[in-house]
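User: Hello! My lab partner asked me to get a predicted holo structure for this protein. The small molecule is nicotinamide-adenine-dinucleotide, SMILES included with the sequence. Please write out the structure tokens.
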Amino acid sequence: MAIERVGVVGCGQMGSGIAEVCARAGYDTLVHEINDEILAKGVDRIRGSLERGVKASKLSREQADEAFGRIHGTTHLEDFADRDLVIEAVTENLDIKRTVHRTLDGVCRPHAILATNTSSLPIIEMAAVTRRPAQFLGIHFFIPAPVMPLVELVQTITTSDETVAQAREFVRTIGKRPILAKDIAGFIVNRLLVPYLLSAIRLHESGLASREDIDEGVKLGLGHPMGPLALSDYVGLDTLMYVADVLYDEFREPHYAPPPLLRRMVQAGYYGRKSGKGFYDYGK
Ligand SMILES: NC(=O)c1ccc[n+]([C@@H]2O[C@H](COP(=O)([O-])OP(=O)(O)OC[C@H]3O[C@@H](n4cnc5c(N)ncnc54)[C@H](O)[C@@H]3O)[C@@H](O)[C@H]2O)c1
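Assistant: Hello! Below are the structure tokens for the protein in complex with nicotinamide-adenine-dinucleotide.
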């Protein structure tokens, strides 16, 4: 079954980027948010990103307008009934994700593939609430989705090889490079990235180095485009904390435990770039 119509649930940082990538590749793309105001914000984010692409000569005005024309918004999951593939990118919370997938399973046609963009949660726990566990997998993009070329495909113990093959083909058509991971917390990349980011936060928390020196040290000494504290702000401190909690739960290894400073910042509403404040200030 060919994938023609794509759905994206959640139009936050990741969902908006994923929707943009799909629309730019020619897919009719439907995005869902919990209310009209957040939906409008998400759609504006897509528009803004396409405009930046035009300014940077990465796409023409015509391509940007065409891509935007393929994006539709809704606040009703029932509208996903005609989708061939739905990628869920809602908040990193298992209960919320399970509720979304249970509803999607009831709404979508039998051939449709359901996918989650979770960074860390057990995918099988979402697949298990549907009647299509063989057609359920992780399709994990990286931030910012329009720029980063990698997509991790995550095969659970119930995902069929055919579903993985279809997802691999889809990922290629949107111009990304797939790698295959198993359904274990953190998959491949976050298993390596998260302990590194948490170590940088601990270093800062211990008072041994300033945030600027930590970030400058990694950029100049390791050649990374971004330092770990700026990257944590970019990822979202709430998302980083949720992911670290899941990794710690799965492996019980101290280097996955979120440092108290990260938890305090999230409790204070400092979510990083998306809230205007994290390790750095971003204004409104
Ligand atoms: N931020 C990253 O670097 C990154 C990278 C890869 C994957 N992810 C994963 O992507 C997912 C989303 O992360 P994000 O950074 O975009 O978070 P975000 O906070 O920017 O966006 C989450 C969105 O989900 C929406 N939402 C919440 N409940 C919903 C529901 N029931 N139905 C529809 N929408 C709902 C929220 O309104 C919000 O707009 C998480 O699973 C996260 O782990 C994040």
